[in-house]
Amino acid sequence: MEKTAKTLIVIDMQNDFVDGSLGSPDAEAIVAPVIDKIRKCREEGCRIIFTRDTHGENYLETREGQYLPVKHCIKGTFGWELQKDMDTTGATVIDKPAFGYTGWGEYPSDEFELVGLCTDICVVSNALLLKAIYPEAVVRVDSHCCAGVTKESHEAALMTMRACHVEVE
Questions:
Q1: For range 143-154, the mean pLDDT
Q2: Is the pTM higher than 0.85?
Q3: Domain containing 100 — which CATH number?
């Protein structure tokens, strides 16, 4: 794929993470700012990529399911779908079976900005993968457009990303 100047990556803004089986008031609170960020990036001509946490019916039997025994983001269910106001027009949508997406090498960019859920699991995983694949690219996380499992784990993930040279706004 052709290299772009800036890529916005919207991590797992799915029903189960916002107001479903793993939802929280903090996750609900970032929906409007994320929608605004997408609109602004679209106006600037950024590449936009959405990820969807994607599991099968056997999720509870998987290694992840043993650590997080809450069925969520089962492919084809309402909980797996992106929130209804997430406009994917012209965007790429990636189904990822694990915390981090290992195919980022297909999307070269000078700058990556990440927003979404959950800061302390999927956002941090993908930010660190991007930093490893593209060490000279700017990798940025908008902390106002992210939410963690808890406020404490959100802050800990932001601290971890800063330590690994991810810019945190």
A1: 97
A2: yes
A3: 3.40.50.850
